[in-house]
Amino acid sequence: MPRFIPVDSPVTIELDGDQLQAREGEPVACAVLANDQLIFSRSPKYHRPRGPFCLTGACAQCLMRVDGIPNVPTCRTAVKPGMRLERQNAMPDVRIDLLRANDFVFRDWFNHHEFMAGWPIAEQVMLKIARQLSGLGVLPERPAEARQPAIIEEHELVVVGGGAAGLAAARQLSNRGVSYVLFEREAQVGGRLITGAEAGQPAPWNAPARVGAEVVGLFADDGKAFLAVIEGQRLHLVFYKRLLLTVGGHPMLPTFPNNDLPGVMSGRAVSTLIRRHGVLPGKTIACVGELSEARSLAELVKGAGGTAVAVGAEIERAHGLRAVNAVTVKPGGKIACEVIATCGPLSPAFELAKCGGAEVVWNAQARCFVVQADARGQTVNPTLFVAGEVRGPMSSSAAAEQGLAAADALAGGAGAP
Amino acid sequence: MSKSLICTCEDVTASEVEHAIGKGYCDIESVKRFTGFGTGICQGKQCLNAVARLLEDKAPKKPTPQQLMPFAPRPPLFPTELGYWASASFDPTRGSEGGVPGGMDIGFPTLRSEAPVKSKAKIVIIGGGIMGLALAWNLAEQGETDVVVLEKGYLCAGASGRNGGGIRAQWGTPTLIGLARRSIELMKRFARDMGINVWFRQGGYLFLAKSDAVVKKIERGAALHNQHGVPTQILTPDAARDVVPELTMTGVKAAAWNPKDAVIFPWPFLWGYAQQAQKRGVQVETFTDVVGFELGGGKITKVLTDRGEIACERVVLAAGAWSPQIARLAGVHLPNEPHRHEICSTEPLKPFLGPLVSVLDSGLYFSQSMRGEIVGGMGDPREPSAMNLGSTARFLSRYSQALTEQLPQAGRVKVLRQWSGPYDVTPDNSPILGKTPKLENLLHMHGFVGHGFMMAPAVAERMARWMATGESDELFERFTLSRFAEGRMEREDFIIG
C-alpha cells in the first residue's frame, strides 16, 4: 500500500465500479494513487495511458468524470463519501484501450493537416471517425442548478498566493498596519514551504488569509480591474486598487521519450503526496533533475519507507508500456523504478500579471517566460506588483525577500517608489 | 511508441513541433496554431516554455529573447464552469469597454524580417487574411503570379483566425445566398484542391426565434432561401428539439433549419491558400506593416512598408477591420468601423451537438468543434466602435446566461479560453468591393461584417476573374465605395454574433 500514514476512518468511493478506501477531504487523485491506480485516463489522439503529473491543476493528466461531471481535475477535487469516479476516453477501458493502435500507427506524430486530405471517400470516412473520437468527457447528464449570485467585493490591496513570497509580504503588511486581503487556492497557506521537497515550515501564521479561494481570472471591464475568485462554490468579483501577485509557477513537463507515462510526476507533486497526504506513490522513485531538490526529495522518499534512485541524474528516457517500470539516466544507465520525479524550477505563472498589464519577457538564462518588474516588484502597471517565482526560478528565501520588498513598497514611507 | 510529448493536453509531440519549425513557423503564435499545442485544458501552462526552448534550439535562425513572446494569455486562468460566469451580472445599460490583455494588437515589430520586400509587383494585396490569400491564390489560378501579399502579423492573427467557423447559406439577399452557396461548394473541395484538411462538417444551422418579429423574419428568409435552392424549413419548437434533444425551447416560437449549413476549422484555409499561392510564385510577407503610399496621377504608384517600397500597378485592400486605417494613409475615407466580438471555447466533450445553434433575437450562437469544444459567442449591441482585442467578464457572463438558458447541462461545462476579433462593420451591413473614386487602382475587398470568412472563397474567385479579364461583374458595380455617397444602400439584416 502506498499509504505510509494509515487513514483513521476511511470512506468509500467508487472508481469504474470498484470500491476504493479514501480519506475524506484529500484530493481525489491522491486517493486513487493511494489505491495503487496509476492510470487515470487515455490521451486524446494516441490514447496513451495518462496519470497525474503536476497535482496543481496545471496539466490535464488526471481528469476523470466525477459524479456525472466530465473532465474534472481530480487533483483539485476533495474526496466525499460515495463519490463516483469514471475514467474517460478509452475503449473499452483505460487498462486495455484498443484505440492505442493510433499510437503505433503514427509512430512519431500524426499529421492531422494532411492525413487523407482530399482522398475520395476516405476523407469522408476519416472525418466521421475523427468526429466520433473527438472530445474527452461526455456532456453532464443533468441540467445544472443555478449558482448563487456572484458577490461583489472592493478592497484597497489584494495579495494572490500564500507561498513563501506572499506570506512574507502579508506579514510585513500586517506589521506595518496596512490592510489587505490574501487569497490562497489551497486549503492551507505555505506553498512550497509545506509542499516542496526542501525541509522547513513557514513561521507561525496569524495574519488573515482566505484559503480555498482560487483566482480564475483578472479582468479590466470598463477600465476597472478586478479578480474573479471562486470561494465556497461561489464566484466573487473582487475589485481592487492595488494588487500583489505572488502566485509562483506551474510544474513544467521536461521533454524526453515517454515523458507522459503514468508514474512520471513533477518533483513537487511527489513531495506534496509525501508531506501533505502520507502517500508514497511508488516503492522505488527516481529523483531526477535539479540536484538540490532531488536530494531533498530523496530524503523524503527514504523517510516514507521508499527507495530513491538516480538522484539528481539527467534523464534520457522513461520505460514502460502502461506505466513507468524503469528510467534511463546519465550517469547510471537503465534503472528499474515505479515513479520518476522530475525536479527543477517551476514555469512562472505569468498569466494574471500579463492580463493586469505587466510585461512578460523571455529570460534567456532560466529559459522561461518571466514577469518583468523593478527591484521592489513594481511592474509597468504602477498598481500591479509581483514577487517570488512568478518573476523566475528562485529559492524560497529569495522569494520571501522579494515579498518583503514589495510589501515595503506597497506600504509606502521611506524609500517607497 | 516512445514519443516525447510537448503538450499532453492535445498530444503534440516534439517531432511535430520540429516539423512546424521546419515548415517556417518560427514564432510561438504560429507554432501554436499549426500544431495545436497550448490550446487544450492547461492552456500552455505545461508546454509554452518547452516550445520556446525548441525554437531556440531548432529554428533555422535562433530567435532573440525579444522575438520570443508567449501567446496572449486569456481568461480564465483555470477551466471554470459556465454556471459560475452566469452567476455574475453586469450593468446591461452600458456598453462593453476595456478588456484583457490590454493594448493587444496584431503587429509584432520584433519578428519583422530584415530582408527587404521585392521592389516591384503588379499587384499588392494588403491583408493576409482569408480574403487576401484567397484572392492571391485565385489570381495565380488566372495566371497572375506577380503578386505580393502583405500581412502585419502572423497568418491567422486577424479576424480570419478568430472566428467561429460557421458557414451558412441562410442569408437575407439573393446575392449573399448565391455567394455563400458557391463558397460552401468550394469549401467542400478545399481539402482536395489544397491538400490540407479543413474539417468541413455539414451539421446544419438551427436558428431559434423568440419574438413575432423574428419569426416573421425567418419565415421571409425561408421563402427566399427556397426560391434560391436552399432547403430551409421552418420548424415548430418541438421539431427543433428533435434536431438537438438537449436544447430547451423556453420562449422559442419557431426555428429555421437548413441541414446543409456547416462548420469548418478556419486556420487551415489560410495555410492552404497561402501555401498553394506561394507554390505558384506569389509572395506572402508576414510581419510586414504598410506605413504609407506614394500617389501620382490619380493612382497609387508605390506601397510603402516597414521593409521597403513596392512599385505596383494595382493595390487590393483586404485588411478587414484594419482597412479604414490603411485607406487613410492613401487619403481615402472608409465608412467601416471595427466592432469587437467576443467568443469562447469550452473543454472538449464527446460529440453531442450536430448543428450550429443561434438565437436570432439575442445574437447567441454556439456549435461543437471537431475537437469537441463548444465554441460560441454573442454580440453586444452596446459594444462601442473601437479596435479592441481584449476579453471581458461581461461577455462571459452574458454568454453563459444565454447559453445555459438554451442548454442547461452546460452550466457544469468549463470555459477554457475566451478571445475576441473585430467585425468590419459597414453602414448597410454589406461589403465594399471594386474601385475607389479618384484613385482608380485601389481596389476594395472588405466590409464583410463578421461573415467574410464564409464568403471569401466565392468572392475571391469572382474578384480574381474580374481583375484578370476585365469582364463586368455586378458585385464590383453594386457594392462599390461610391454607393454611400450616392445613397444606394444594400441592406443585409441576417447578421448574428
The fourth-level CATH homologous superfamily of the domain at 109-162 and 267-336 and 428-486 in chain B is FAD/NAD(P)-binding domain
Biggest sheet: strand arrangement of chain B:
3-19-15-18-17-16-7-9-8
Q: pLDDT average of chain A, as an integer? A: 95
Q: Please tell me what the overall shape of chain A is.
A: globular
Describe it.
The complex is a heterodimer of chains A (417) and B (497). Chain A has helices at residues 28-34, 101-105, 122-133, 164-175, 192-195, 267-277, 291-303, 351-355, 396-411; strands spanning 11-15, 18-22, 41-42, 49-50, 63-66, 69-73, 84-86, 151-160, 181-184, 210-211, 213-219, 226-231, 234-245, 249-250, 264-266, 284-289, 307-309, 314-319, 326-330, 333-336, 339-343, 347-348, 360-363, 368-371, 384-386. Chain A is of the alpha/beta class. In chain A, the strands form seven sheets. In chain A, strands 8, 9, 10, 11, 12, 13 and 25 form a seven-stranded mixed beta sheet that branches. A five-stranded mixed beta sheet of chain A has the order 2-1-7-5-6, covered by helices on one side. A four-stranded parallel beta sheet of chain A has the order 15-21-16-17. In chain A, helix 4 runs parallel beside helix 9 and helix 6 (267-277) packs parallel to helix 7 (291-303). The radius of gyration of chain A is 23 Å and the shape is globular. Chain A starts with 10 loop residues before the first strand and ends in a 6-residue tail after the last helix. The model of chain A has no long low-confidence stretch (mean pLDDT 95). Among the domains of chain B are: 5-71, BFD-like [2Fe-2S]-binding domain (Arc Repressor Mutant, subunit A); 109-162 and 267-336 and 428-486, FAD/NAD(P)-binding domain, CATH 3.50.50. Chain B has helices at 14-22, 28-35, 48-58, 82-86, 130-141, 174-194, 212-227, 237-243, 267-279, 323-329, 393-406, 452-469, 475-478, 482-486; strands at 5-7, 12-13, 80-81, 120-126, 147-150, 166-167, 205-209, 233-235, 254-258, 262-263, 283-285, 290-296, 299-305, 308-317, 337-346, 356-359, 364-368, 374-378, 414-425, 432-436, 439-446. By secondary structure, chain B is of the alpha+beta class. In chain B, a hairpin with a 4-residue loop joins strand 16 and strand 17. The radius of gyration of chain B is 22 Å and the shape is globular.
